[in-house]
Amino acid sequence: MNLTSSIINKNFAWYIIKFVFSFCVLYFGTLAVIGLSAPEGKYYSGLIDHHLDYVTWLRLSLMYTTKAVLSIFGHHTYLFFPEILYFKNGGAISIGYDCLGYGISSFWISFVIANNGRWKKKMKWILSGLFILWSINILRLSLLLIAIQNKWVIPFFDHHTWFNIAAYILIFVLIYFYDKSSKTLQTKSGYPKSS
Fold first, then answer.
1. What would you report as the CA-atom Rg of the chain, rounded to the nearest whole angstrom?
2. Least confident of 89-93, 111-115, 167-171, 186-190
3. Where are the domains of the chain?
């Protein structure tokens, strides 16, 4: 094994370690927050429930923004807490934990963290990617509620599968542009920036 392939193998191994560690912390950390913020749970934490429950904040942002988007287009909806968005005398959706997109968000954040680059650049990419994922989730929830109200049939797959397909396509597009921006930076500086 020559020196170049040894360095590449070490870099790749370090990348995988950073990616897997980040993903596990984010994904299972979110599951922990869900569990610890449930008042009926065995390990309930009032601190997490009242001050650190970002999962509920995410759900509420999805509910209120979907409601606002639908109202712009003349559809009046109502909220029934903690997770129901509905038309009066009509269709309704329940925005459960599996609708929040925390798995795909964890994947995106972990990808960016595992790559080389300055933290300022990483934060820009993380926030941009999260905003895009959040936006397509709003679009999905809006279209889903309209589809239910109008009794439209969703072709081929359920809405979760369609969201995952769209989200991963967008993630791969973001990965392409992230890598392209990193290669442009490497070309200008001659070397990759370290994290």
1. 20
2. 186-190
3. 53-189
